[in-house]
Amino acid sequence: MNNQTYWDKRYSQGRLWGDNPCPSAVRSFPHFTRLGVKNVLVPGCGYGRNAVYFALQGFDVTAFDLSNVSILHAKALAAEQSVDVPFFQGDLFDIDFLRGKKFDAVYLSYVIHLFLKDQRESLLKRMTEWLKDNGILTFSCISTSDPHNYGFGLEVEPNTFVKHESKPLHFFTGDELKKLLEPDYRILEQKIHTQTENDPSGESEELQLWFVAAEKCTK
Ligand SMILES: C[S@@+](CC[C@H](N)C(=O)[O-])C[C@H]1O[C@@H](n2cnc3c(N)ncnc32)[C@H](O)[C@@H]1O
């Protein structure tokens, strides 16, 4: 099953984790206001819970996801909340998508750990290209300190495990995040936080996630 089919199938169950924004979106807000952010790009936006939150706070938001089904849910959520967000179907790895566009902020929730090392690096490069100089990148990702999820399945790369559906999950250490960001960014905040996700089957999962806010340095 390809990646798009996988996510379309998952989102056919609806707005999987509820409509509230992630803690990392709420944590991003004071950074955005302090730095005078006006527009925000939300790649891998899913069904728009965070993009809609940012629009409700008054930011000019652009958002996209690989899954057509999630984009339909996102448009419905924005309509329910009476906000105007352009939601697009698009692939993070399609280098022509949003080529030449620049944003004050890029927010990536719970996406970068879904890929192997080479793809994570090219994903970060794309985020950097989409940011204006001195723009801010905020994101969340899973951490090696997550006792309920780290270490399960087959380790295919260091700290990267495949548990089900052939999907890798990479668990980040703090030092690794610092090294990854070092060449292009100044880290403003890097902290572990807990995110509780409730899924449609009624199950709830406690995740230990990194929240990172980093400013793109002018070269
Ligand atoms: C765990 S979900 C997180 C969704 C959303 N960021 C949130 O926090 O609600 C990962 C998302 O990444 C999207 N995704 C995966 N690969 C992608 C790609 N190559 N391009 C764009 N989106 C992608 C999936 O469709 C899915 O919506």
TrEMBL record:
Keyword Aminoacyl-tRNA synthetase in record: no
Write down the CDD domains for this protein, in alphabetical order. AdoMet_MTases
Q: Which SUPFAM superfamilies match?
A: S-adenosyl-L-methionine-dependent methyltransferases
The protein's matches in InterPro entries, at most eight in alphabetical order, are given as: Methyltransf_25, SAM-dependent_MTases_sf
Molecular function, one GO term: methyltransferase activity
Record key words, sorted: Methyltransferase, Transferase
Which top-rank group of organisms is this from?
A: Bacteria
Q: Which residues form the Methyltransferase domain?
A: 40-135
Name the Pfam families on file. Answer: Methyltransf_25
In its UniProt record, which GO terms are filed under biological process?
Answer: methylation
The protein's matches in PANTHER family, at most eight in alphabetical order, are given as: TRANS-ACONITATE 2-METHYLTRANSFERASE-RELATED (PTHR43861)
Name of the protein in question: 2-polyprenyl-3-methyl-5-hydroxy-6-metoxy-1, 4-benzoquinol methylase
According to its UniProt entry, this protein's organism is Desmospora profundinema
Q: What is the lineage of its organism?
A: Bacteria, Bacillati, Bacillota, Bacilli, Bacillales
